[in-house]
């Protein structure tokens, strides 16, 4: 393998998901020397690793794809919410169109990066010992690059296969006829539970907090329909750039849910429900995520819709309780297809971990306070050290003598979610304190990504070799994100949006709600000669 240490790259990107490959494509077009390193054997980022049965994107077509015409014009999806295997085929198509692979080092996990002050360059090390030199480091590690496995007593003693959803075997695993246990009921849990219920001999679901899942209303798509829809794609994608929202075709009524009659409210809720997907989350009333009373009305609607699908009232109390476990929509809702019906099946049992916690994992299964459940397969759908974990698992050393992990031990401070004081020439995409999970991969890749592309062109034009932000500026951005958070109900939930799913992690909003306002601030920063940044 080439050792590139003697050839300095202009930019080195970590991660070959949507954000990384967009950077590669654009920077290469502009004549930058650029390369991607990725731990996986292929393109796709999270869609490489998350290949568990049922893994599927929750953004509907065409929100979850590049707006590059050469890519979309002859690509057609088979489903409105595509599955992981189709997403992988999409990445192969993108590669064929844009010719990305020759500039990507696969099977190359970045383990460390160190800033060389004397040269204003990064030295970036891989697990196989190779070291790359680059002027700019662009981590595009995504928000779900580091899985989270709780510290269950006895986990190692389980004798059967045990897979975290993000480390599902690439060759697949057949759950047919098996006794399957799934811990966790987030988006990944919901998806794998739906599939396991169809084929497992017995499925036991271990739920700590009920997910307030929304009806996906999946649809098959044919080429003829998409050919017609594509006439609007240029306009759709233009709106996506200017409205700057991953939900560019989902708009909420400007009124409060409290400002309308009950009949009108029910009609708007019902219409959003029927449209499916995130419409019931983002497309009903403007104050669902800011006003507790409006929020309760949305919860009540959701609860009744959901309970009517569950035959056993005791099971319904666990899945869709009378009192909301947290304000509706403050944890990511996730989309489901037949999730609630699963719990009416004879082969499926539900354990409410709040009542009957896991005491120990044993050789044969899971021991709760009240019973031993024997399992052939244990699935950990327990989520991610979201937002920061993918970055802090790399030993990144800037100029302060503290690693990024140490720097963020008591909380994240960044400028625009892009730059960190003490880490010059490092520009993060889809990272903490930027819209990330309130947007989506391809949309952020383009709108936030273009900002970084323009910034690098600005530096090149002025022959500047170093860009960094200041501590004051980063503290200012953190205060701003906090203020925005305080105007919403988001801080009330123990969600990964808040970093609250990981024991001991600093609690703060890690995703910026409001793509439009975020992009406006990025635009003003650039317009004012990159206010909040210093150059050399
Ligand atoms: P999530 O949404 O973080 O879900 C993780 C689930 O695991 C959730 O139900 C957790 O319950 C549960 N969990 C976590 N720790 C434990 C312990 N110790 N005991 C029992 N249950 C536990 O991760 P996903 O992978 O589903 O989804 C992540 C995002 O990826 C998704 O939203 C999409 O954007 C893609 P809790 O709610 O914390 O009580």
Overall geometry? globular
Helix content: 25-40%
Radius of gyration: 23 Å
- Structural domains: how many: 2
The CATH homologous superfamily name of the largest domain equals FAD/NAD(P)-binding domain
Q: Beta-strand percentage?
A: 15-25%
The CATH architecture category of the largest domain equals 3-Layer(bba) Sandwich
Oligomer: single chain
The CATH C-level class name of the largest domain? Alpha Beta
What does the model show?
The protein is an alpha/beta fold and 536 residues long. The protein is 32% helix and 15% strand. It contains 17 helices and 19 strands. The strands form 5 sheets. Strands 3-2-1-6-5-4-17 form a 7-stranded mixed beta sheet, covered by helices on one side. A 5-stranded parallel beta sheet has the order 7-16-8-9-12, covered by helices on one side. Strands 13-14-15 form a 3-stranded antiparallel beta sheet, with no helix packed on it. The protein is globular, with a radius of gyration of 23 Å. The two termini are 34 Å apart. It binds ligand NA7. The site of ligand NA7 has 21 residues, from helix 5. Ligand NA7 is lined by residues 144, 150, 165, 183-189, 208-209, 332, 334, 353, 381-384, 496, 501.
């Amino acid at each position: 393998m080439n050792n590139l240490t003697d050839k300095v790259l202009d930019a080195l990107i970590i991660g070959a998901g949507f954000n990384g490959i967009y950077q590669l494509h654009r920077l290469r077009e502009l004549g930058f020397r650029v390369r991607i390193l990725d731990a996986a054997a292929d393109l796709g980022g999270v869609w490489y690793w998350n290949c568990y049965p049922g893994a599927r994107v929750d953004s509907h077509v065409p929100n979850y794809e590049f707006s590059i015409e050469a890519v979309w014009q002859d690509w057609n999806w088979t489903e409105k919410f595509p599955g992981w295997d189709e997403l992988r085929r999409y990445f192969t198509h993108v590669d064929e169109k844009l010719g990305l692979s020759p500039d990507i080092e696969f099977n190359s996990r970045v383990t460390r990066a160190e800033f060389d002050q004397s040269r204003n360059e990064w030295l970036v090390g891989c697990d196989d010992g190779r070291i790359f030199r680059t002027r700019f480091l662009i981590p595009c590690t995504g928000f779900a690059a580091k899985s989270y496995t709780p510290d269950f007593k006895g986990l190692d003693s389980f004798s059967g296969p045990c897979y975290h959803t993000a480390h599902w075997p690439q060759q697949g695993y057949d759950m047919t006829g098996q006794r399957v246990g799934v811990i966790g009921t987030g988006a990944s849990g919901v998806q794998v539970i739906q599939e396991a219920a169809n084929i497992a001999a017995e499925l036991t679901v271990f739920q700590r907090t009920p997910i307030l899942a929304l009806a996906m209303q999946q649809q098959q798509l044919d080429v003829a329909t998409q050919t017609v829809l594509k006439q609007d794609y240029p306009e759709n994608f233009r709106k996506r750039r200017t409205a700057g929202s991953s939900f560019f075709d989902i708009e909420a009524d400007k009124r409060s849910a409290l400002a309308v009659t009950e009949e009108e409210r029910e009609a708007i809720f019902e219409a959003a429900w029927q449209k499916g997907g995130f419409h019931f989350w983002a497309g009903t009333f403007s104050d669902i995520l800011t006003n507790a009373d409006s929020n309760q009305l949305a919860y009540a609607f959701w609860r009744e819709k959901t309970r009517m699908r569950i035959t056993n009232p005791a099971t319904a109390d666990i899945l869709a309780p009378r009192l909301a476990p947290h304000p509706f929509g403050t944890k990511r809702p996730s989309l489901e297809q037949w999730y609630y019906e699963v719990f009416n099946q004879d082969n499926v049992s539900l354990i409410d971990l709040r009542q009957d916690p896991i005491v120990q994992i044993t050789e044969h299964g899971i021991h709760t306070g009240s019973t031993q459940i024997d399992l052939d397969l244990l699935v950990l759908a327990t989520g991610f050290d979201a937002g920061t974990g993918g970055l802090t698992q790399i030993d990144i050393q800037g100029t302060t003598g503290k690693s990024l992990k140490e720097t963020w031990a008591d909380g994240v401070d960044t400028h625009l979610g892009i730059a960190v004081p003490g880490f010059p020439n490092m520009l993060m995409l889809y990272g903490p304190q930027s819209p990330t999970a309130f947007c989506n991969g391809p949309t952020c890749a383009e709108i936030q990504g273009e900002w970084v592309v323009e910034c690098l062109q600005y530096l090149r034009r002025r022959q500047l070799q170093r860009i960094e932000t200041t501590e004051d500026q980063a503290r200012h951005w953190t205060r701003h994100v906090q203020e925005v958070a305080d105007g919403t109900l988001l801080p009330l939930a123990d969600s990964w949006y808040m970093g609250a799913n990981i024991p001991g992690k600093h609690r703060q909003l890690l995703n910026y709600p409001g793509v439009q306002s975020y992009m406006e601030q990025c635009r003003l920063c650039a317009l004012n000669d990159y206010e909040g940044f210093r150059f050399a």
